[in-house]
Amino acid sequence: MLTEKELQERKERIRWGIIQSAYHAHPSPVSDFLIQSAVKTVVPDVASKEILEEANYLQGTCCAIISLRHLHESNGFSARITKYGIDIVQRAVRAPDGIGAPGYEA
């Protein structure tokens, strides 16, 4: 079982993987399948449910980092990075707390 700190670090790595996936697909949206493939390189046992939870978190942040489009036919989703998300990846702005962006550790 993960400690609270380990769980938070896991969530942050998943969030950063989602942001990176959406950034590299820009200007097109990226599918949940491709996001999961990318995130598995840093969190090998990540579940689809975790990715959706963290994608929803990113969409719901004060300045949405990604926008989601739920695909009812497949129960999946696609994500598109926002300008704010691009600024985070390109280091134009500081990543908010809760995003595991390398180089932003306190």
Describe the protein's architecture and organization:
- The protein has 106 residues and is α+β, with helices and mostly antiparallel strands.
- It has a single domain (7-89), classed as Winged helix-like DNA-binding domain superfamily/Winged helix DNA-binding domain (Arc Repressor Mutant, subunit A).
- The chain is 47% helix and 13% strand.
- Strands 1-3-2 form a three-stranded antiparallel sheet.
- A hairpin with a 4-residue loop joins strand 2 and strand 3.
Keywords:
Arc Repressor Mutant, subunit A, 3 strands, 3-stranded antiparallel β-sheet, 106 residues, alpha+beta
- CATH fold description: Arc Repressor Mutant, subunit A
Parts with pLDDT < 50 across at least 5 consecutive residues: none
**Which architecture per CATH?**
Orthogonal Bundle
Number of helices: 4
Please state roughly what percent of the residues sit in beta strands, choosing from under 5%, 5-15%, 15-25%, 25-35%, 35-45% or over 45%: 5-15%
CATH homologous superfamily caption: Winged helix-like DNA-binding domain superfamily/Winged helix DNA-binding domain
Compact summary:
The chain is of the alpha+beta class.
